[in-house]
Each structure stands twice: as structure tokens, then as C-alpha cells.
Amino acid sequence: MSKHYIDKGCLCPYYKHQDPSLIYCQGFTWGTTLHVAFDNRAGLKEYTGKFCKGNFKDCRVYQGLFKDSYEEDMGDFPAPCH
Are 33 and 26 in contact (CB under 8 A)? Predict the structure, then answer.
């Protein structure tokens, strides 16, 4: 079983937590979570450095969630995690 942890350096408002091969982000509807899976830890580390801790607005997950939650009327869409 994977151990989840929160990387305190992540700035993206949709980041929830991660484990050695997955990043968990807020989903598109209440009570859902998106998983961004990696083949290895190096890929996860590179991704979190570039997007979660860096320019998260360039992340496709962020862009999809932002568009759905703020540019369209989604009613009671969940607010970002942070």
C-alpha cells in the first residue's frame, strides 16, 4: 500500500497529496480526485518541480479545472484545496 504525503512546496490550489508514483489533484466534481501517474519517481519529481511547485498555470490539469470552475457556470463546483 502506498503512503500518501503532502509536499508543502506545492503551490497549485488543486494539488491534494502524492505518493512515490502518483500526484492526487482535486477532481472535476465533488468527492472526486484526479490521479496523475508516473512510470518512475524521477518523472514525478520533474513534474512537481515544473508545475505543482512552479508555474502551475501551465499544467493541463490546472487549466482544465480552472476552466470548468471559473469560466463556465458549474454551480456548486468545489473550491480549490488551498
Answer: yes
- Domain ranges (residues) in the chain: 31-82
Q: Any idea what DSSP says for residue 13?
A: T
Task: Give exposure, 9-41, as e/b (b: 16+ Cβ within 10 Å).
Answer: ebebbbbbebeeebbbbbbbeeeeebebebeee
Backbone angles phi and psi of 42, in degrees to 5: -60, -40
Q: What percent of the chain has pLDDT over 90?
A: 67
Average pLDDT over residues 49-68: 91
Would you give the end-to-end CA distance of the chain in angstroms?
26
**pTM for the model:** 0.79
